[in-house]
Glutamate-1-semialdehyde 2,1-aminomutase (Arcobacter porcinus), 427 residues
Amino acid sequence: MFKKSIKAYSEACEVIPGGVDSPVRAFKGVGGTPPFIKKGKGAYLYDIDGNRYLDFVQSWGPLIFGHCDKDIEKAVVKTAKLGLSFGAPTTLETKLAQEIVEMYDNIDKVRFVSSGTEATMSAIRLARGVTNKNDIVKFEGCYHGHSDSLLVQAGSGMATFGSPSSPGVPADLTKHTLLCEYNNIEQLKKCFEESSDIACIIIEPIAGNMGLVPADVEFLEACRELCDKHGALLIFDEVMSGFRASLKGASGILDIKADIITFGKVIGAGMPVGAFASRNEIMNQLSPDGKIYQAGTLSGNPVAMAAGLVSLRKLKKNPEIYEELSKKAKRLINGLKKVADKNGIAFQINSRGSMFGFFFCEKEPKNFKDVGTCNFERFATFHNEMLKRGFYFACSQYEAGFVSTKISNKMIDDCIKAADIVMKNLK
Ligand SMILES: *Cc1c(COP(=O)(O)O)cnc(C)c1O
């Protein structure tokens, strides 16, 4: 079934570390060879062996309209024909910025970059520059891209100075990153007692990088209060949840307002785009108006802007899409839960808009440690068996899943039927 992919993978491993350009793609969490993809169409992925999969990964979030959406495709081709990049301003950037600013009452200006990593990295520089402070608070299990200060893991102790989670990251840098447990208000308070040099808290308000683990409202309120009390800025990393969890992202579901919001994924519709946004008084401190430096040769790339613009305009024009997607995500996870219960499999589910997550766990995980107690063997077997049956789920229990507008109720029901058979045989 995977003959050509196995060969392609071994060839890739000769010239690309681990055969992939982003580690999760290598299927290390579930074993086996990742299918090499030939094309996508609508709700489906097709690999080079000719297998077809119902896609619940959607390039890890960007493809809310599925693969090869006609409107997006048309805009991309039309724009590409006018030139791929100019290194000069285009009106497309202004238009996409307008679309984003219009959706939020707490942001006035947006700056575009080329990835989520760049967006969060720049947001942190901005927060540090504006507050004139050095420390940042990050939560275990939240992922904000792979920049140095954000690749931290817990050291010893409680509210602790993070230590590097990767070789190549200097401890001198990560000592400025304070690591706390997600949804743990006491630890967060302690953090602010330990340091008077905190520039910002960065958080995924709906964490999607340890499976789907939404923050408790009281926890986010505590983040807001502590930032206000100590003159720190609150950064919502909405690279995943932006225009996904709702038309206004997590911010649209919650009453809590962040100072800086980062975007990526959906705002580029599959093209490399990231962005960070805030109020005038903060954004005006960025270069060239202000002193805080940030730049990018391909930032605001016209083809990427065109893709994002069509996508966001379609979403805004048809806000009922979010209700439909939300219903579909619920249909999927409730269906999976039902067959899990029927087969005596401990199973936890969650969804926010078109984001969904499930865990092979006795109780709902509230933080990274909880997720670590889930049954990973079961997850791997489930994943492999579903893949063989044509259902492409994220290859790690630490990742969220997504539904697109191209996924129908019938497709979801077929998936649940397949899951029933798979779960019957899960040990
Ligand atoms: C994907 C993601 C990032 C990193 O974005 P890249 O485009 O992969 O660099 C940052 N934050 C969150 C919340 C993400 O989901």
